[in-house]
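Hi team,

Below is the intake form for Arginase from Chungangia koreensis. Please confirm the fields before the structure is written into the shared record.

FORM ID: S-0412
PROTEIN: Arginase
ORGANISM: Chungangia koreensis
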Amino acid sequence: MNKLDIAIIGVPMDLGQARRGVDMGPSAIRYAGVVERLEAIGHEVTDEGDIQVRVTKSSDMTQTNLKNLNEVRIGNTKLADKVHEVVTNGKFPLVLGGDHSIAIGTLAGISDRYKNLGVIWYDAHADLNTDETSPSGNIHGMPLAVSLGLGHDELVNIRGFAPKVKPENIVIIGARSIDPGERELIKERGIKVYTMHEIDRLGMTAVVEDAISYLKSREVDGVHLSLDLDGLDPLYTPGVGTPVPGGITYRESHLAMEMLEESGLITSAEFVEVNPILDERNKTADVAVALMGSLFGERLL
Ligand SMILES: NC(=[NH2+])NCCC[C@H](N)C(=O)O
Ligand SMILES: [Mn+2]
Ligand SMILES: [Mn+2]
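The structure came back. Fields below:
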């Protein structure tokens, strides 16, 4: 295990989707013992606290079909600057959500350090909608598209450059709910997707091995793991706003985290969509922290 300097950044953002409460995700994950857990492995951990996010919904949806565009943009701009600072200081950013719209800021903050960044998107969804294709207007369904440079200018251009990632450097794992516009984009850009079909058919071992060798063949200089807790089956992580049945198991997820840790490729991570209001006794935050344990090198023997 490689000893890391981990910087935890909380993002109490819930304006990227419709169900309130996911702003309490960072507190729930801290309560589940994230700092102690990572320290016990032997890492240096600093909790950088939370990014200030405006809590009031904007009523103004007149110009675009994006909900709370301004608040989401401002929160992500602050997050991007913070992540950039942490990366520049040689620390490993571990971002706690908050809804998945915060991946916009995380990726904006990382990607000028890693010019050929790889991204693993562990999620039931592809999050590849744009303002034109979104069925909901919820920005948490758009962060991957935004990072590809597609969507509203104000989101795409955070930190003044675009795109943040290349389509051929992205791997999606666990997809089982894909909208028509997203399907088109996946085909058009040749984005690598392991749906639940591939996970069932090949097994998680083969899927993660394949994902790792694919990213290595792309010669990535870093890999960001963006883990949406709804990637797991809602049996294991009920505290999410957009659950989709038929998901990845708890065991498969631990295996995936262990294999990613062994690969030595991961240079940043975020765990998102933990909503304590929808959860059962903090189960989803507990799973998030357990998976972080595996991702950061915790082993039984
Ligand atoms: N990060 C998430 N949970 N995203 C869910 C997105 C759901 C749907 N595809 C939408 O765009 O509205
Ligand atoms: Mn999702
Ligand atoms: Mn997501």
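SUMMARY LINE: The chain has a mean pLDDT of 96.

Thanks, M.
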